Amino acid sequence: MFQVSNLKSGYGQSVVIDNLSFSVGENETLAVLGRNGMGKTTLFKTLMGVLPGMGGSIKLKDDELSGHESYKRVKAGLGYVPQGRHVFPTLTVEENIRAGLHVRGETEVPSELYSLFPVLFEMRKRKAGDLSGGQQQQLVIARALATDPKLVLLDEPTEGIQPSIIKEIARKINEIKKIKKISFIVTEQVLSFALEVADRIIVMEKGRVAMQAPRSEIDQATLSKYLSV
Fold it and tell me: Contacts for 205-213 with beta carbons within 8 Å, 24 or more apart?
């Protein structure tokens, strides 16, 4: 459903992602792990078109996304939840979600989004900047879902969130995948979260895939060997 082939990307003359290839299936969650500085965020920025690629192919179903601007990738079905959440703090919760609906030419927040995130319905008239970190993370996920994506990129969704809320977000991701039948790519530092949501795992090392395996064939101890400094 999503195919990355021989992807190359970086900054100026510095190559961070080098000849990277992987795929994501229908209704699958792929966890992309790796130590800091191994290229995970650069990968996501390149997939979204925030950072221009230096070569390779990015295909979502039948659409070649390489070379397209970010908004065209969103229209093709690619959703993005950036690291650090990035809500519009002075807009209300409802206005934040409606920003995602703009891609679809709609203005009314679908009831199914509020069903998935009841706390957002309760706080829909409040400023997004007044929400807790966990509530803001739910908001940016809801905003990404408002674009009606086929695949959503989640860049370190647990960053700065307390452990009890991390478990809730993992449960929510699994629920969304089951209900909406969409796929996810998740980068994450919290191994327990990655293992809870992933169907398959790849580990990046210096911009390339160092290891990949189905979730059922890997455990936290094995992953720790790859991720230890």
Answer: 205/34, 205/38, 206/18, 206/38, 206/39, 207/15, 207/16, 207/17, 207/18, 207/20, 207/38, 207/39, 207/42, 208/18, 208/19, 208/20, 209/20, 209/21, 209/22, 210/34, 212/22
Q: How far apart are CA 44 and CA 153, in angstroms?
A: 7
pLDDT given for residue 25 in this prediction? 96
* The one-letter amino acid at 15: V
Q: How far apart are CA 85 and CA 115, in angstroms?
A: 21
Burial string for 49-74 (b: 16+ CB within 10 Å, else e) reads bebebeebebbbeeeebbebeeeebb
For residues 120 and 138, what is the distance between their CA atoms, to the nearest angstrom? 8
Q: Is residue 119 a contact partner of residue 83, using CB atoms and an 8 Å limit?
A: no
- Domains belonging to the chain, first-starting first, are 2-11+18-227 (3.40.50.300)
pLDDT < 50 regions, the chain? none
Per-residue confidence (pLDDT) for residue 208, from 0 to 100 = 86
Identify the bridge partners of residue 58 per DSSP, sorted by sequence position: 4
pTM score, two decimals?
0.92
